[in-house]
Amino acid sequence: MLHTPHPAIRLDSLAMVASLVVSAAGSPVSAQWTVTNLHPSQTWDSRAYGVSAASQAGYVTSPGDGAHHAVAWFNPGGTWIDLHPPGSSFSEAFDVWGTQQVGYARIDARLHAALWNGTPESWVDLNPPGIPDSFAKASSGSQQVGWAGDVESVRHAALWTGSADSWVDLNPPEATASEALAVHAGRQAGIAIIDGVRRACLWTGTRGSWIDLHPAAAEESLVWDMAQDQQVGYVVIGGNPHASMWSGTAESWTDLAPAGAAYSTALGAGNGRQVGEAHVDGVVRASLWTGSSASWVDLHAFLPPEYESSTAHSIWCGVGVTYVAGYGYNTQTGREEALLWTNARWVVTNLHPQWATSSAAHAVFASQQVGEVTYQTGSGPRVDASLWTNTADSWVNLDPGTLGSIVFATSGWQQAGVIGAGPGNFASLWSGSAGSLVNLNPPGAVESRALGIGGDQQVGWADVGARHASLWSGSAESWIDLHPAGAAYSAACGASAGQQTGYVNQTGSADGIHAAVWSGSPATWIDLNPITGDFASEARGISAGQQAGYYFARGEADATRMACVWTGSPESHVDIHPAGASQSVATCVSNAVQAGYAIIGATSHAGVWTGTRESWEDLQFFTPPEFSSTVAEGIWSREGVTAVAGHGFNTLTGREEALLWVNGCRADFDGTGFVDIEDYDAYVHAFEAGSDTADFDGSGFVDIDDFGVFVAAFELGC
Fold it and tell me: How many C-beta neighbours within 10 Å does residue 86 have?
């Protein structure tokens, strides 16, 4: 329950800070775009057509044979691989989904739709049997789309699911020709030629399912890309192409053409944003929209002056970063060059106190982070429970003078963890200071740990002959044993809205662990272990009815951990293991955003997801280069802001150091994209109403401290 402070105190506080609120007015939230030149120096020219979280796809012109070679780039601006299949004379890649690329290869003067998995040897020929030519343009999940037919005459929109034999002809019965140019979540889009007119259209997997998107006033229309419930492309009006957007019907058409543009087209879509090109002031400019003509952003303006033209072809939007792939013409080199625009909103803070020998942040809630700090004493190393508020200098020692302590979780202004006292470790609860410690060890328990906290509940385990999943509500006497009858041991790792999650070992062996969820008693236990195949699993975090953790094949626990999420049942299991990772774990979740780590190239990379393996966002990319490995252990996501707590190994200092990743801007209280006086007014109204949105310090109460934290964020801007 949130409580509003006394009105007199509130009014005094407003008067006290009123003089401070003008300095941040008009401060933009979004970081500036940066541009990476992807062009390999040893090639003649290049284009990037597709983009995902960790890779891009396109082509380069090889000086060896003067032909286009399909290529993939991995890790933004990093290594590139020539995908050109053996025996082909020409190839291009147009889209990327995870580690897969699609495009075409020319073989014996014929075009063959192509599917790759990151290497030239992985090439799959999608050309349907008996069809002279084919072309793959886009990919999503297990589906690929393009066209199949005769390159010189009739093309039929085509749908594949990974092989030539899987080809489905999507050509509408009334169309003389068609092409599928986009695919997303089981829907396909492109064009159908009917009565000589190119008409934008949409399918759901069969030729008879087609929907005509052609606006009534259009002379011609086409869909280039789609995402969620949105399709983008162009509509020709008065002889000029207009960048366009639809949401599933012809009547939903929106004209995105910027004012004054000679022509424009939208080529890519993602998460409510659209990219393409617009001819403005005599220059073809890479362009970005957010759903309207007035929202147009000139991405060309972020390029060096030697680029005389540019095109944005594809967009990928994550939790804290947006990537746009395209190309531009460089007048100094006289060639087209593949480009990647990046708008990164992740800001990384090192929380490590300089006098400490190591540190780690295990959880985050609003503006507080918790974990542990190790340092040397006269009697040797010591580990102390730790609390930060966004900076290394803010460190607070929560240890009450015991033999050591660690905080594993935080919610509101409470922290849960463990203290070492005498022969055992005891589950513990703090309220922001060492003196606030409450010992949660149940009567008769040998030892215990508190691993999670949600609202007024704490969870963990207590050793009462074996480890038993445990639930507390603020005192040792409140202990509830969640251990299912007959199980060997169990533990609860997270709590949210009256539910608890963790694991139950039913056999006592290392491969008998099953992810579990409870609703406050042992009888409510639900086994979350995936029902398909021979799997074991563990749930680490819970939020808003979603559990996050990992699963693995029994007997191979060290080799095949794969991050996953559930929504309360084994059947709801979703594999979010990133493509290209050897193993992964989702350690936590907050409001449908998961965090954890993936092992990529033998190195641990902290990352976040939004419920799918394709949504994986590598936080290692935004971390200073001296950190060779990183792990995310805690997450808090609310009101457009996501904070991730964890740690990484610093090669310069030779130690593990606590880290905080944050994206978004909490001072943008009204969500307009700018920090200005309207944000201050909106916060004052929420503060006076005692709204939980005004609980800026995450204490569980709305009081003068919240106002101070908001003012500090407001003055800082974004």
Answer: 8
Contact call for residues 619 and 593 (beta carbons, < 8 A)? no
Digit-coded pLDDT (tens) for 396-441: 999 988 779 999 999 988 999 999 855 679 999 999 999 999 999 9
Distances (CA, A) of 235 to 157, 224, 281, 565, 695: 20, 11, 21, 41, 47
CA 131 from centre of chain: 40
- The vertex-497 CA angle with 345 and 540, nearest 5°, equals 65
Could you tell me which residues are beta bridge partners of residue 236? 220, 241
Confidence of residue 704 (pLDDT cuts 50, 70, 90): confident
Two structure tokens written together for 489: 């041991």
Which value, in Å, is the radius of gyration of the alpha carbons in the chain?
28
Report the distance separating Cα 570 and Cα 688, nearest Å: 44
Average pLDDT of the residues in 112-134: 95
Would you state the structure tokens that stand for residue 358, as one six-digit string? 């190591």
Burial 507-533 (b: 16+ CB within 10 A, else e): eeeeebbbbbbbeeebeebbebbbeee
Largest CA distance in the chain: 88
The DSSP H or E segment spanning 7 is helix 7-17
Q: What is the DSSP letter of 587?
A: E
**Confidence band (pLDDT; 50, 70, 90) for 198?**
very high
Cα–Cα distance for residue pair 378/362, rounded to 1 Å: 27
pLDDT for residue 430: 97
Check residue 615 and give left, alpha or beta (phi > 0: left; psi -120 to 50: alpha): alpha
CA torsion sign, 675 to 676 to 677 to 678?
Answer: negative
Residue 426, CA distances (Å) to 382, 418, 520, 704 in order:
17, 5, 21, 34
311 forms beta bridges with: 327
On average, the pLDDT of the chain sits at 90
First to last CA, the chain: 30
Identify whether the C-beta of residue 596 lies closer than 8 Å to the C-beta of residue 587. yes
DSSP 8-state secondary structure symbol assigned to residue 437: -
Strand partners, 406: 418
**Residue % of the chain over a pLDDT of 70:** 91
Tokens of 174: 């009334």
Report residue 624 as tokens: 């200073």
- In the chain, what are the helix, strand and coil shares in percent, each to the nearest 5? 10, 50, 35
Q: Among 588, 586, 538, which Cα is nearest to 363's?
A: 588
Residue 538 CB-half CA count within 13 A: 21
Evaluate whether 80 touches 74 at the Cβ level (below 8 Å): yes
Shortest CA distance to 618 belongs to which of 597, 641, 637, 589?
597
Mean pLDDT in residue range 194-214? 97
Q: Which pLDDT value is given to residue 700?
A: 64
pLDDT, tens digit, 9 for 90 and up, residues 434-464:
999 999 999 999 999 999 999 899 999 999 9
pTM of the predicted model as reported, rounded to 2 decimal places:
0.79
Whole-number Å distance between alpha carbons of 451 and 583: 23
Task: Please tell me the predicted confidence (pLDDT) of residue 1.
Answer: 29
Whether 321 and 617 have beta carbons less than 8 Å apart is answered as yes
pLDDT for the residue numbered 694: 81
Q: Is the model's pLDDT at 13 over the cut of 50?
A: no
